[in-house]
Design goal:
The protein is mostly helical. The protein has four helices and no strands.
Amino acid sequence: MLPKISPTEYVTRMANAIAKLTEQHGGTCILELGWPHLVSMIGCLQLSLRHPSNRGGPARMMRDLIDKIYALIPPEHAEVVTLLKLGDDPKNDC
């Protein structure tokens, strides 16, 4: 069972852990995913970004990540980006 900690302690411990990780292993990581996994991940991020309480720094970082992923999709597959962007609006949920 995971220990229960306060939100303040969580934020402090996470910030320290990320700083140590960055110091020891650099500021970036390389992640290899198949396109279906990447599309699914974008969909999950879009859902989380729609939550009314999800408005802070992490939400902005996830929006930035989505935009960077869009930029990785080759121009000849622009329809993929167009379809993915539909996921930002709940009216388009299936």
